[in-house]
Design goal:
Elements: E1 49-53, E2 63-65, E3 69-73, H1 76-95, H2 105-116
Parallel strand pairs: 1-3
Antiparallel strand pairs: 2-3
Helix pairs in contact: 1-2
Length: 117
């Protein structure tokens, strides 16, 4: 079996996702950065949301940005629903007088679910 020396996931940026001449053993070595444990949860922070609509069939490109949301794609109906959720979320956070980065993750999740309804 022939091993490829380079793996590219994109055509336009050869260095971006290239494994170069790394051997597979490189990826099994311990790393100095690890995934946070459950004990690190008090440091969690929500910095924003990305909404992606996949049901667009009319070819129209829809993009909406707000303080906390980046909404992309979707049919007119789906995109409008994402926009409504973003507006209600932002209004609720503003009424509570809180910044997103200072709001506990559990509260952010609750506000988001409330805004979706």
């Amino acid at each position: 079996m022939k091993m490829l020396s380079t793996l590219q996931l994109t055509g336009g940026a050869p260095e971006t996702y290239s494994l170069g001449t790394c051997s597979p053993a490189t990826f099994t070595q311990p790393r100095e950065h690890t995934v946070p444990s459950k004990n690190d949860r008090e440091d969690r922070q929500v910095v924003g949301f990305v909404g992606l609509g996949l049901d667009n069939k009319d070819g129209h490109r829809r993009l909406t940005r707000s303080d906390h949301f980046f909404l992309l794609g979707g049919s007119a109906e789906t995109h409008e629903r994402m926009q409504d959720t973003a507006i209600r979320f932002d209004e609720t956070l503003r009424r509570r007088g809180k910044a997103l980065k200072d709001t506990p993750v559990e509260e952010v999740i609750a506000i988001f679910h409330q805004a979706k309804e």
